[in-house]
Design brief:
134 residues; alpha+beta; Signal recognition particle alu RNA binding heterodimer, srp9/1; 2,3-Dihydroxybiphenyl 1,2-Dioxygenase, domain 1; four-stranded mixed beta sheet; globular
């Protein structure tokens, strides 16, 4: 088994796609107006309209309701990413910060409120996998 994608349901696919294209520099594939995918070598971020939710089951998902996950994006330079995201990101949760487990991390929110972590390993920490997000 492998995780194929993480999907965000939104009321505004176009706005969320534009945000993630700007934040990641990845062009989204748009096989349908109600759906998009940002594909990376390690996984896919899918964005779907909430109008597709009834196809999954009544009330199966809701836009802007998540406060329990973070999307982790491995970047080369967190500080450069922070500077680049000025004008793209409206809500930064923190400024670039070096975490005790050895990652430099920048937390932000997408337009629907999903937490995003842009991180880079900066040092080896005994007993820790520094490639973990946050």
């Amino acid at each position: 088994m492998q995780l194929a994608a993480t999907r965000i349901f939104t009321d505004d696919v176009d706005a969320l796609v534009a945000f993630y294209e700007g934040a990641t520099g990845i062009d989204a594939a748009r096989p349908h107006p109600l759906f998009a995918e940002l594909r990376t070598p390690s996984g896919t971020l899918a964005i779907a309209s909430t109008s597709t939710v009834p196809l999954l089951g009544d009330g199966a998902a809701a836009a802007r309701a998540n406060r329990s996950i973070a999307l982790d994006f491995l970047v080369d330079d967190v500080d450069a990413t922070y500077r680049r995201l000025q004008g793209v990101v409206d809500v930064f949760v923190n400024e670039p910060t070096t975490m005790p487990w050895g990652n430099r991390s920048l937390l932000a929110r997408d337009p629907d409120g999903t937490l995003i972590n842009f991180f880079a390993p900066v040092s080896e920490v005994a007993g820790a996998d520094v490639r973990l997000g946050a």
